[in-house]
């Protein structure tokens, strides 16, 4: 009898939640700090007050250097085809379900900036596979602005808010782009209505770069990944943007979370394009140039992703998530794309700075499989590793390597060099894309792009930009020239001097 009432007392007590310090001690008064008498200063011995202020003072961590404004959701990936002939990665095993975390983002704005930004949208997916984590860190288009990682910091500096005013400035952005003709294709995509998605559910995602898939026999295929939205694609027209910002500048987050809360789970189908290594040379552009689409290569569907859960802690999921193109699993490897190669370094590097050396142990980043590396210690380590065999090989340590996880061999030739790629074809696909647009999409593109070009006060930069668009397509360039009050004959003369390459 006595034992029963003791248990009851315990369970009643367990339901009462006391406010505590970070060390778990109950707090007596959370409204009044301790002072020296009624009118005296606060006391150093009020450790609850001091800890509370100290913790508050340290709540912010560095925001991402790009893609700071983002929204995350959990879900699952389910393969729909057997591609074991292409890849040995177990994430593609038919019948399996792999948990995922996805973070959508804008690129240049600060952490709390409006979601209506003339920006690509980040579409980063972390697959928690049975062989460790695999990340596809992509965007909503199959291409990018530049093709060499060495230009990325300059590209970002020119497009982020000005170093003087803290405000984005079209003069700075187009000063960079006037020296970057390879951006013409991406800029043409950026200023269409798709450049302003009305919802994260209404956009596709792309891995952009080529990757290698490797099967159990060691055969290599080059692939590109494409998430196709089952919700369709929809963007805001230029004349709708101002009203949309006025109504709700968090529209993409509110839309995504609203849909998930209502049980209307968004889905994307994963498609791949596949090339034999020998086929890379068959294009009239460089197939490993990320400013190019692999035109004419069919896509095959390999799986479906469903987002079905909103994280219950923004900071610990969306903010502390860490995606990296270098995070791959056996059966998926990097291609020689020069942008991808730089990204293989940059993400894990920035994350060690932004989140600390043990960032992969934060729950949102932690693999679902055991981690048996000999990496140890460092700030905020909670890995719980045991024993004094913190090295490998060891006669005591029984961990073994997995020969099936060894990377493929790639044949190389030539000398070390610093040279631009061949077959740049800077304007070809921008023109093809422009001509594929409907009349309304063309008109909206010209409206949106000319609005920003009209802010460019450097005449030389403005005409150079117009010549790039003219080189892509004469009608495109002529309409832009008209909308920016430029001389079409001067634009044409400049365009004629550009190499079609
Ligand atoms: C060499 C070129 C590039 C470099 C050096 C670079 C660097 C970075 C860095 C440092 C971050 C912040 C990561 C973090 O703090 O966790 C980031 C985020 C991101 N980047 Fe890049 N980036 C490059 C190109 C690209 C390209 C081509 C794409 C698209 C295919 C892309 C997509 C993203 C996405 C989606 C994020 C946000 C990931 C998230 O939601 O946490 N980046 N990038």
From TrEMBL:
Alphabetic keyword roster: Heme, Hydrogen peroxide, Iron, Metal-binding, Oxidoreductase, Peroxidase
Cofactor(s) in the UniProt record: heme
Domain of life: Bacteria
Known role: Decomposes hydrogen peroxide into water and oxygen; serves to protect cells from the toxic effects of hydrogen peroxide.
Lineage: Bacteria, Pseudomonadati, Pseudomonadota, Gammaproteobacteria, Lysobacterales
Pfam families hit by this protein: Catalase (PF00199), Catalase-rel (PF06628)
Domain Catalase core positions: 20-400
Disordered: annotated segments: 23-43
The protein's name: Catalase
Reactions catalysed: 2 H2O2 = O2 + 2 H2O
Organism: Dyella humi
InterPro entries given in the database record: Catalase, Catalase_AS, Catalase_clade1/3, Catalase_core, Catalase_haem_BS, Catalase_immune_responsive, Catalase_sf
EC number: 1.11.1.6
Family: Belongs to the catalase family.
């Amino acid at each position: 009898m006595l034992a029963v009432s003791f248990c009851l007392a315990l369970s009643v007590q367990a339901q009462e939640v006391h406010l505590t310090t970070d060390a778990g001690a109950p707090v007596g008064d959370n409204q009044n700090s301790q002072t020296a008498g009624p009118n005296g200063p606060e006391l150093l011995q009020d450790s609850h007050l001091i800890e509370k202020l100290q913790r508050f003072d340290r709540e912010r961590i560095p925001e991402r250097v790009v893609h700071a404004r983002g929204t995350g959701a959990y879900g699952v990936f389910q393969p729909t085809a057997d591609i074991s002939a292409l890849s040995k990665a177990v994430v593609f095993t038919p019948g399996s379900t792999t948990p995922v975390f996805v973070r959508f983002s804008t690129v240049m704005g600060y952490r709390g900036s409006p979601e209506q930004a003339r920006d690509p949208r980040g579409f980063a997916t972390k697959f928690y596979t049975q062989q460790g984590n695999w990340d596809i860190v992509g965007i909503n288009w199959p291409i990018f602005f530049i093709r060499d990682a060495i230009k990325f910091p300059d590209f970002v500096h020119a497009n982020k808010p000005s170093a003087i005013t803290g405000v984005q400035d079209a003069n700075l952005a187009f000063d960079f782009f006037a020296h970057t003709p390879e951006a013409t294709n991406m800029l043409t995509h950026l200023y269409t209505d798709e450049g302003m998605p009305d919802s994260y559910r209404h956009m596709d995602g792309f891995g952009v770069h080529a990757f290698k898939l490797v099967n159990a026999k060691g055969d290599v295929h080059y692939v590109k990944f494409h998430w196709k939205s089952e919700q369709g694609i929809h963007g805001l027209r230029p004349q709708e943007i101002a009203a949309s910002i006025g109504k709700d500048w968090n529209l993409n987050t509110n839309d995504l979370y609203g849909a998930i809360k209502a049980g209307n789970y968004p889905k994307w189908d994963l498609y791949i394009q596949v090339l034999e290594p020998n086929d890379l040379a068959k294009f009239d552009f460089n197939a490993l140039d990320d400013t190019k689409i692999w035109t004419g290569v069919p896509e095959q569907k390999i799986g479906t992703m469903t987002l079905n859960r909103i994280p219950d802690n923004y900071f610990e999921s969306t903010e502390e998530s860490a995606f990296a193109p270098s995070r791959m699993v056996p059966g998926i490897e990097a291609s020689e794309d020069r942008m991808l190669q730089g990204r293989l370094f940059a993400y894990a590097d920035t994350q060690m700075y932004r989140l600390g050396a043990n960032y992969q142990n934060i729950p949102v980043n932690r693999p679902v499989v055991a981690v048996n590396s000999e990496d140890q210690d460092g700030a905020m380590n909670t890995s719980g590793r045991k024993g004094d065999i913190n090295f490998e090989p060891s006669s005591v340590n029984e961990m073994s390597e997995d020969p099936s996880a060894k990377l493929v061999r790639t044949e190389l030739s030539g000398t070390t060099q610093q040279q631009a790629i061949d077959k740049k074809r800077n304007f070809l696909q921008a023109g093809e894309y422009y001509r594929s647009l409907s009349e309304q999409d063309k008109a909206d593109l010209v409206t949106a792009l000319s609005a920003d070009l009209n802010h460019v006060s450097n005449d030389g930069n403005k005409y150079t930009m117009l010549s790039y668009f003219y080189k892509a397509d004469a009608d495109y360039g002529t309409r832009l020239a008209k909308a920016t009050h430029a001389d079409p004959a001067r634009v044409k003369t400049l365009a004629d001097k550009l190499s079609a390459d």
